[in-house]
Amino acid sequence: MKHALAALSVVLLLSGCTTGVQTYGYSPNLQPIPGSITYGGQPRTKLKKAPVGSIVPHQFFDQFGRQVFETYVIEPDRSLRLVSRRWRSLDVFGDFD
Question: Which helix (H) or strand (E) holds 6?
Fold first, then answer.
């Protein structure tokens, strides 16, 4: 019982830590934002050679200067589905560890 309580305490303490990366991903309702590949609709070119289910990473900077990392999956109709998005704030003091 002591070990379970200690493990729970460690998990709760670590869950309060932040790493500078915000993750909002794997949501069925994830909408594209300005800079996303699918913002304003699907791209005109179809990904014909990539297998269905392939992962397509994409990164850009949003209007607030944060680095955005998105992940897309190629659907059977060759469209892209946005499956995850993460933000990374840039350190204003230039400490990019």
Answer: helix 2-15
DSSP one-letter code for 51:
P
Domain boundaries, the chain: 21-88
Residue 53 to residue 18: CA distance in whole angstroms? 32
| pTM: predicted TM-score of the whole model, two decimal places | 0.64
Mean pLDDT, to the nearest integer, of 66-70?
A: 94
Q: How many CB atoms lie within 10 A of CB 40?
A: 9
Residue with tokens 């949003």: 62
CA distance 8 to 18: 18
Give φ, ψ of 45 to 5 degrees: -85, 135
